[in-house]
Amino acid sequence: MSKLRLRFHRQTLLTVLPVLLLLVVIAFAAGAPARTRGSDAEALRMMDRAQHLLERIGAEAAPEAFAGHDSAFIDRDLYPMLLDDQGTMIAHGWTATLNGSDLKDLRDVDGKAFIREALDGSAREGSTDVTYQWIDPLTGQVARKTIHARRLVLNGRPYMLAVGVYR
After folding, report:
1. What are the strands of the beta sheet with 127-135, ordered from one edge?
2. Per the CB 3.0–4.6 Å rule, which of 79, 98, 143, 158 could disulfide with 93?
3. Can you give the residue ranges of the Single Cache domain (predicted)?
4. What is the pLDDT of residues 81-94, one digit of tens each?
5. pTM assigned to the model
6. Residue ranges of the chain with pLDDT lower than 50?
7. Which of 121, 128, 160 has its CA nearest to residue 147?
C-alpha cells in the first residue's frame, strides 16, 4: 500500500508541478506590462523636471526641449505637454504636430472635455488631475488615462504643464 501511495504522490506531483510552473510564468508575465508603463510618481517627477527646465529656458524653447521620441522627456508612455491658458498646445512631447493647435474643446471617446477641465482646475486650484478615455499609443486601444496638470507662469504668462498616465 505504501508503494502505491508513493507512486500516486509522484504522479500527482508530476502533473501538478508543470501547472504550478506555468502559473508562476504567467504571474511574472502579468507584471511585465506594469514595467512598460509610467507611474503617477514618475509622471509627477517628469513634470517637476519639465517645470524646472521651462523656468530656465522659457515656453518658447519648450517645443524643441520636448521634441522627438529620443528626448529626455519621453519615458515609455510618459511625455509632457505645455498649453497656454487658452488651450493652445505650445509643446507636445509625443506628437509635435499638435503644437499650435487649439485643444480646449478636445473631447475623449465619451465626450468629456478633458483639456478644458484640466485648464479650469489648474487655473483655479494650481494643480488638478483629470481622468478620461484615450487611445493608448502602446496598444492602440482605448484606455483610462489620468492627466496630472499644474499652472505655471512663465515670463508673466499663464500656462498649463501636464503629464498623463495610462491605467
Report:
1. 89-92, 80-84, 157-166, 142-154, 127-135
2. 79
3. 71-150
4. 999 999 999 999 98
5. 0.77
6. 13, 16-33
7. 128
Spatial CA neighbour of 118 closest among 54, 161, 167: 161
**Cell numbers placing 63:** 517645443
- Asked if 126 and 7 touch (Cβ cutoff 8 Å), the reply is no
Question: CA separation (Å) from 136 to 77, 78, 109, 128, 146?
Answer: 8, 11, 12, 21, 12
C-alpha cell recorded at residue 24: 508562476
Residue 35 grid cell: 514595467
DSSP β-ladder status, 80-84 and 89-92: antiparallel
d(CA 78, CA 64): 17
Burial 14-38 (b: 16+ CB within 10 A, else e): eeeeeeeeeeeeeeeeeeeeeeeeb
